[in-house]
Amino acid sequence: MYATNYHRASSVEDAVKLASSNDEAKYLSGGQTLLPTMKQRLAAPSDLVDLRHVSEMKGISVNGGKIRIGAATTHAEVANSAEIARACPALAHLAAHIGDPHVRHMGTIGGSIANNDPAADYPAGLLALGATIVTNTRSIAADDFFTGMFETALEDGELIVAVEITAPAKCGYAKFPNPASRYALTGVFVARQGDGSVRVAVTGAGSDGVFRQADMEQALASNFSAGALDGVTVDDSDLMADIHASSAYRANLVKVMAKRAVAAAG
Amino acid sequence: MGMEGIGARVARKEDKRFITGKGKYTDDMVVPGMKQAHFVRSPHAHAKIVSIDTSAAEKMPGVIGILNGAQLSEDAIGNIICGWMIHSKDGSPMNMGVWRPLAQDTVRYVGDAIAIVVADTKAQARDAAEAVVIEYETLPVVTSAVDALKDGAPQLHANAPGNLIYDWEIGDAAATDAAIAAAAHVTEMKIINNRLVPNPMEPRAALGVYDEGEDHYTLWTTSQNPHVARLVLSAFYNVAPENKLRVIAPDVGGGFGSKIYIYPEEIVCLWASKRTGVPVKWNCDRTEAFLTDAHGRDHVSTVKMAFDANNRITGFKVDTIANLGAYMSLFSSSVPTYLYATLLSGQYNIPAIHANVRTVYTNTVPVDAYRGAGRPEATYLLERTMETAARELGVTPAELRRTNFIREFPHQTPVIMCYDAGDYEASLSAAMKASDYDGFPARKAEAKSRGKLRGIGMSCYIEACGIAPSAAVGSLGAGVGLWESAEVRVNAVGTVEVLTGSHSHGQGHETTFAQLVAGRFGVGIDSVSIVHGDTDKVQMGMGTYGSRSGAVGMSAVVKALDKVEAKAKKIAAHLMEADESDIVIENGELKVAGTDKSVPWFQMALAAYTAHNLPEGMEPGLKEGAFYDPSNFTFPAGCYICEVEVDPDTGKTEIVQFVAADDFGKIINPMIVEGQVHGGLAQGIGQALLEGAHYDPDSGQLLTASYMDYTMPRADDLPSFQVSTTETVCPSNPLGIKGCGEAGAIGSPPALINAITDAIGNNDLTMPATSQRVWAALASAR
Description:
The complex is a heterodimer of chains A (266) and B (782). With 266 residues, chain A is an alpha+beta fold.
């Protein structure tokens, strides 16, 4: 790791100010990707602005069907939240299966989606749930937020403050972990809204990051059951291939995990 | 057997300090004036070094010195050697390419060390290392041994045409070919043994200290055999004379073979300490460990096994290509030859065996012994072939094995080994009973009702531990003897110190070696200290690898204990005016048999040191040493049975039952033995299911260079093991013990792959059997 200056932000305003005062500053929100990358000297921010102690960015609230999760809320807090478990159980399940206990007690939802790792779990959850990402300057729909592998709609210095979700009628998440890293080799989040519409989001498999599987959404909208996906064929031409999984294997996993996610949604 | 003697399930003495973080490892060592080192390494798998410019780096903050191969040559530091000479079948010696501790002209794998930077802090050393400018001319790369043998392959060493190190054979080719020609059935297979990264918990480290006043060197290092390190550093590398060099291997956090060898970094740190005038500390980060620790396995083999009409094996023919990486590591040549092909008879009567082995240079890190070292490769060939043959012949796997078991001992195989004792039927029966083998069809049917494919597989392994005797291994090309030394010092208060040339890096010697003393003299194990790992304390030893510490190291202790006991009895007899032949040692007392006369152990010891009243002519003190050179290898054996369930949708394999029945001879501490088996099984299952080093064939970059991509087995990948033992006493050493360190890693991979291939109905499956591979094998079988 190269030397860096650590700052503990006290408020959103303070964080943005600290970050904007240096071109090479980065927000630190758990650091479960950034810190290992820095240790390998593959990233060298001059300044780190730690967001995990900004009180207005922490915590979970559920009012009626409206869920708000502060960006600096850890995966463990989401996983263990009784309110999330009631309102959106698949999201609690997703959070409970990110990394390992160390990661879950340090990593945060804001940090995860800002990084938008193509194999991270939260992007699939938020995309399928049609979440709104609230920043210090605006609100961004999940469909517009995840723009590509490790890329998001965030502007320089823009800071995620919270994530807002409308509780779905049903939801399920199924993940096949990479045996080494335990990131998603393929993960599928399925959410059915009260109006019967269905969104299916896939992580770990797409060569351009998280994506929605439209044909599955249509099949499930008319018949929300695992069997409804039997006739769906997953095209592997835009899927990743690496030493862990071919694109054909990932295509198979997209279908298998989608069916399991639907089954889990009940 | 006493409460703490041989056979007692004693908790490990050393665990308190390990579990509470109080162990003292090489990287914990601090000496005055110590500075930090970082190595400049090649980012290329194969390249000429055109120039090295350290001028900018030398001006960086904190930099004390930057040294490269040119300075190493100025000081006539020697080439890194391979310590076991193998001759090709045409009689020519192996082609050992030049391995400089710091590469001077050519780099041959990613991670090849080029220069050392010594600075005040680690960060400064690393900063300066990044400022060293090296101009390379890249060369074509080959990473696969099979490809390296092909015409037109990139060439690594001028003295090894075609990248061939040796072309070696063992056994009777004509008899084996004749058996195959006359066979009623021949089973043929192509079998790959996947390359592994050892991954001990503690990465390698070194601290080299040159004392100018004394003209003396000290090296702290993460070694399984500090005396061998001292010998090689002085005799071959010309770093320091043996009498001026102390090598200390303090607590070492696992090795699995990878810490046997003397690596460039230890040599260079010690040398650099004199050259820079400061103590030089280096510790390896995990990425460096992946890139530079000697890897294991990496064989490609074809086999033919011939059977007569009664399903008896008549011949076994093996052709193996083994990847030894870019250079020949210390024992690399012996692993795919004498530690491998000599085990190809397994537990079976095989009248004719022939094996041909070609070892090959590639642009990968050197390959050497890794837990099992050659024996897992041999066992994998045999036990995959036996299971496959059983399926082809339409007999049960157990029946085919029983038909061919060796049942009389000693048994001379056609490949050097003479098995001294064993009962293979006993371990097979024990494992089948423990696994409820007969109930498998019902379990398979039940699994099918849940949509799972259940399979069962077995493996009957043999291994050879305590490689010996010295004269025999010398005649086969070994550069060292493979005996062991021990010294037993009884203190004046009766406490005991045992000095051993074995080295414990997780095996529990501080407990088991103490149990030998406790059992013999009736002193508590807390009154016995085991001293090891320091060449200034223990005169000489060969270290720990190949499951040799029990069979060889403990036997040396027993010899020394015999001498101590004899003298102790003389003293006691003198004190009690009895005949020494009447003295017995019981519960910490020396007694005159059949009387109530006794002398406590401590009183006898005190008498030895006060020397007020010793037998006429006896020297004071109570300290004895011994060297022990075994008469033979030992031959642990056993049977493993694995049961799996495969998810046909994803190809994911779950191990639902794993049974081990091992014959380790006499057992010193059953709990430690069980721990060794558990660890070995975890590593063997890791190899079979999860682990695999993967080099990019074009660039030679190691793609599995972190835990993000290299799958280490974790607790949730493994079942709760059912382990048990059977016992035939080993006649070749005084304790009757065989060794247990490697069995799990040797026997488990074929059991697991046999189970998965049984489940999926496709025998074409390569380790590691990842979910993707199993899914693809299922798809192609449909």
